[in-house]
Design goal:
Elements lengths: L7 E3 L2 E5 L5 H11 L6 H10 L5 E8 L2 E11 L2 E9 L8 H15 L4 E7 L3 H9 L3 E12 L2 E11 H4 L3 H10 L1
Parallel strand pairs: 5-6
Antiparallel strand pairs: 1-2, 2-3, 3-4, 4-5, 6-8, 7-8
Helix pairs in contact: 1-2, 3-6
């Protein structure tokens, strides 16, 4: 199986490493999806620092245009999903599931045992997706996210990747998209 670094194509989708010129498109998607999202400069920093600093920045392209992205980092046997988004017109079509499944396969190939993420308590669609993928709620970070004049708590979630090998949901997703 190929992983970004090499490009992956499937049914009109192209999953590839982000390059410096992708920061503007990622920033635009971020603003469509999140009220208090990352700036273009943050994307640029992640892309520029890249692999030597532990960042993996992937673009999901459809018909040659960025439809979404996924950014994560890993050190030793732990990984952290930092950001994932899809343009609203591509949401609720299984693409987020597909992106995360690809990341999980990549992490397993690199002997990563644990994957962590934070998600807004109010983002029930994302929480449901992560739970379907096998993530567990392991705690909360009070006031983690900006929310106008207030702050919003984050749910901290964890996935044991060695356990995930036996999860039939992932197997079905990979079989469909491989």
């Amino acid at each position: 199986m190929k992983t970004p670094g090499e490009s992956i194509t499937h049914a009109g989708l192209l999953l590839r490493p982000m390059v410096a010129t992708d920061a503007a498109a990622a920033g635009a998607i971020e603003q469509l999806c999140y009220q208090h999202g990352w700036s273009e400069a943050i994307f640029s920093d992640c892309i520029t620092q890249g692999v030597p600093h532990g960042y993996r920045c992937w673009s999901l392209d459809i018909n040659g245009v960025m439809a979404g992205y996924l950014i994560f980092t890993f050190v030793a046997d732990e990984a952290h999903l930092l950001n994932i988004a899809l343009k609203p017109c591509y949401q609720q079509q299984g693409l987020g599931h597909w992106l995360i499944a690809r990341m999980i396969r990549y992490l397993q190939k690199h002997q990563v045992a644990e994957l962590y993420l934070e998600v807004r308590c109010s983002n029930l669609r994302a929480i449901n997706l992560y739970e379907r993928l096998g993530f567990s709620d392991i705690g909360h970070r009070p006031g983690y996210y900006p929310a106008g004049e207030q702050r919003e708590d984050a749910v901290v979630m964890q996935l044991h990747l060695h356990h995930y090998l036996t999860t039939s949901a992932l197997t079905a997703i990979i079989d469909i998209t491989a």
